[in-house]
Amino acid sequence: MILKNFKELSKYLETSRRIVIIGHKNPDGDAVGSTLGLKHYFDKKGHKTQVLMPNEFPDFLHWIPGVETIYRFDRQNNQSVKALAKSDIIFLLDFNALHRVGDDMKNTLEKYENDFALIDHHQQPDNFEYMYSDTAMSSTCQMVYNFIEMFNDLDLIDESIATALYTGIMTDTGSFRFRSTTSTTHKIIADLIDKGAKNDRIHNNVYDANSHSRLMLLGRALSNLKVISEYKTAYITLTQKDKDEFNYEKGDTEGVVNYALSLKGIVFAVIFIEDVEQRIVKISFRSKGSFSVNKFARNHFNGGGHDNAAGGRSDVNIEETIEKFTSLLPEYKNDLSNSYG
Fold first, then answer.
1. Residues facing 323 on adjacent strands
2. 47 in Cβ contact with 147 (< 8 Å)
3. Mean pLDDT for the chain?
4. How many whole angstroms separate alpha carbon 18 and alpha carbon 291?
């Protein structure tokens, strides 16, 4: 764990500040939940806050309390830039380096003259003035809970904060089934329920609000599933044509890679998603056991993340990307064979 200049940050926040809170590009449940949870907490402490996201996030997260106050940098650029210019400090949540917000926002943040504070659980973070980094944590939302606890303010957690934090912990732990879910995580979840988080409604809002087209896209993804038993690997492909056919919207592919990982005997699962507009192939990696997809993504696909969940990208077409991926597997045969049970 890295806890840098926390005492100084605590003292700095004793005075009302103008705070901007930022999540990463293509925000997920942990990014949205952690930023809004921290915003609600800071608001109760008398600070003036504004959450910024680089771009749109999935529709199934649009019900979280306070979501209507978020500025999108790509569509509300003037408001976002003004908020940054007026701010005393920026909190960076759920990402480890400025490039994770995308080039346009990164260029703006690199000109920022005040300090950054990082709260994040991804590996190999960049260095900032204030840091709370812990790769052992299940989620950034769990870290925000701990951050509030460090200030002895758990009594300030209300239903809005509890709901936001519960959502991020639930989504980033795969509904509490990933290895990063500890007994402490469950104790925090219990406290959030006691403080107003309605677990059944949250689960329903996130996982049981599928559109017909999203389920049809899932069907196509599963029909494209390939298994390479020799390497305990399975992968899914989705082309731009597949996405267009089923009216793809942001968030429609969230969690699809886990279906490949659910196969008996599989320890390494990947989904390749073609994005013609950005001229890239987006990649999500998942694993069971000791096989580090973080290292795999960093070494070969311009990505990274956690040991069992990471992302990456490829700048060549989807066919060449898959050819590259499959050609790498023999190199990792022993690691994959010994990864899990």
1. none
2. no
3. 95
4. 43
Q: Quickly count: other Cβ atoms within 10 Å of residue 247's Cβ.
A: 13
pLDDT of 246 reads 96
b/e code 167-190 from CB counts within 10 Å (16+ = b): bbbbbbbbeeebebbeeebeebbe
Given a cut of 90, whether residue 180 has pLDDT beyond it is: no
Q: In terms of DSSP bridges, do strands 304-305 and 115-120 run parallel, antiparallel, or are they unpaired?
A: unpaired
Q: Taking each helix axis from N to C terminus, what angle separates 140-150 and 183-194, rounded to the nearest 10 degrees?
A: 70
CA distance 304 to 294: 5
For residues 132 and 109, what is the distance between their CA atoms, to the nearest angstrom?
Answer: 19
Cβ contact 45:155 at 8 Å: no
> Given this model, what pLDDT does residue 205 score?
96
Burial per residue of 76-108, b for 16 or more beta-carbon CB atoms within 10 angstroms, e otherwise: eeeebeebbeebbbbbbbbbbbbebbbeebeeb
DSSP state of 241: H
Structure tokens at 223: 């029909």
Measured at the CA of 281, the angle between CA 249 and CA 55, to 5 degrees, comes to 45
**Which residues, at least 6 apart from 17, have a Cβ–Cβ distance to it below 8 Å?**
47, 48, 88, 89
Write phi, then psi, for 116 (nearest 5 degrees).
Answer: -110, 145
- Distance from C-alpha of 301 to C-alpha of 311, rounded to nearest angstrom: 8
Contacts of 268 (CB under 8 A, 6+ apart): 231, 232, 233, 234, 285, 286, 287, 291, 293, 336, 339
Judge whether 283 and 312 are in contact, CB under 8 Å: yes
Query: What one-character-per-residue DSSP string does 121-158 give?
Result: -SSSPPP-SEEEE-TTSS-HHHHHHHHHHHTT-GGG--
Rounded Cα gap, residues 35 and 40, in angstroms: 9
Q: Amino acid identity of 322?
A: I
